[in-house]
Amino acid sequence: MSQRLAAVRGPFPNWPKSIYKDGKPLRNSTVTTIAPTGTISIIAGASSGIEPLFALVFDRKGSLDGQLTLEVNPTFDDVARREGFWTEELAQAVHEHGTVRGVDGVPEQWQQVFGTAHDIAPPWHVRMQAAWQKNTDNAVSKTINLPHDASIEDVVAAYGLAYETGCNGLTVYRDGSKLGVLHVGAGTASTPSDTAVEGPELAPRPRALHGVTYQIETPLGTAYITVNHDEYGDPLEVFVNQGKAGSDIAPLSEAIGKLSSIVLRVPSSMPPRARMQEMIEKLRGIGGATTIGFGPDRTRSLPDALARVLEQHLATIETQGAPGTPAAGVPNGSRRPMNGKTVQLSGAFCPDCGTALVHEEGCDKCFTCGYSRC
After folding, report:
1. How far is CA 14 from CA 4, 5, 75, 171, 323, in A?
2. Torsion sign across C-alpha atoms 161, 167, 168, 170
């Protein structure tokens, strides 16, 4: 059919450069595929294709009521009852163990037959995918299940074998590495416990702090970033303000600032300045659809802008100590040139346009949109 469509409508654009160029023209660059089968097979009550069974006895959480129910693979249930080794206690033992292999009460013959995902070594998962890849145009949907103690080298080995055997892509999953996802056995559940775990309390915030407010251009407009420090000159909190009140970017910028402050205030053996450096490395280079500026001055996004400001701030306090000089930024309450005259910043921002407010004649004024409060 793809050949017939090509005869009428022409082949796909890159056909002359493709692996099909020496054969008959095709309308479609890919024809065969193997879709993800996990959820589909559950809905249809069918086999999950080339995916081995993840477990024979397992908990399933209802998407509507959130209730956990114990489910047994129907084929295993039929065989166990037919062969006479089924008991409720056996089902519970298999559930807790995660597999029938090594469970007393399950005959050796059936332990070998009912191998599950984690009974199969990762290289054989890859080889199974490769066998089907030979006659499949798109990447084959298959999960390479790794044990909880899998190392980086194990992941590298899986990808290396996938490349060598001609797989178009690969998905690996280490057991228990993500909350709420399939896990082996009842004893290694990766779902959150009902018991609250108390974490470390945030460092207390003094009633008054000194800091610096920076102005920086981002692809979404001007951002004002304030970094406050404690009595030792170490960064303690960050405020990020961008966009008008009620806009989509305003709450996002506020959230970025609050999360940055939490990183700085959570008790840790890592000094605050080292934590700030870590934040810089994680945020630097995050980009969106547009950028502003050129070369080393280019800003890719608000997170990238925050990283640039934190980098400048860190360099300042490392060389000059706690901020407070004009070279270090714009200290709250300081005087600075604006529109040809020296004005005093109030340390607050305009609720309408986000511009830093100027304190003049007893009032806080915005020179951008005309907002004022007295």
Report:
1. 18, 16, 47, 27, 58
2. negative
160: left (phi over 0), alpha (psi -120 to 50) or beta: alpha
Residue 350: predicted pLDDT = 67
Q: Are 334 and 344 in contact (CB under 8 A)?
A: yes
User: Quick check: helix, strand or coil at residue 296?
Assistant: helix
Return the closest-CA partner of residue 181 out of 97, 93, 59, 95: 59
Q: What burial class does residue 140 get, using C-beta atoms within 10 Å of its C-beta: 0-12 exposed, 13-18 middle, 19+ buried?
A: buried
State the amino acid at position 246 in one-letter form: G
For the segment 237-270, what is each residue's pLDDT rounded down to a tens digit? 999 988 777 777 888 888 989 999 988 888 776 7
Amino acid at 140: V
Assess contact for 47 and 41: CB atoms under 8 A: yes
φ and ψ at residue 240, rounded to 5 degrees:
-120, 125
Is there a contact between 233 and 166 (Cβ–Cβ < 8 Å)?
A: no
Q: Work out the percent of the chain whose per-residue pLDDT is above 70.
A: 79
Q: Which residue type does 254 have?
A: E
Q: Report the C-alpha gap between 108 and 110 in whole angstroms.
A: 5
Terminal alpha carbon distance of the chain: 75
**DSSP secondary structure, 215-233, as one string:** EEEETTEEEEEEEEE-TTS
Rounded-to-integer distance, Cα 213 and Cα 334, Å: 10
Q: DSSP readout, 141-197? A: --EEEE-TT--HHHHHHHHHHHHHTT-S--EEEETTSSTTS--SSSTT--SPPSS--
Decide if pLDDT at 325 tops 50: no
Distance between CA 342 and CA 335 in Å, rounded? Answer: 6
Could you read off the pLDDT of 84-108 as tens digits, one per residue? 999 999 999 999 888 999 999 999 9
Query: What's the CA gap between 177 and 147, in Å, rounded?
Result: 10
What average pLDDT does range 181-200 have in this prediction? 50
- What is the three-state SS of 81-148? HHHCCCCHHHHHHHHHHCCCCCCCCCCHHHHHHCCCHHHCCHHHHHHHHHHHHCCCCCCCCCEEEECC
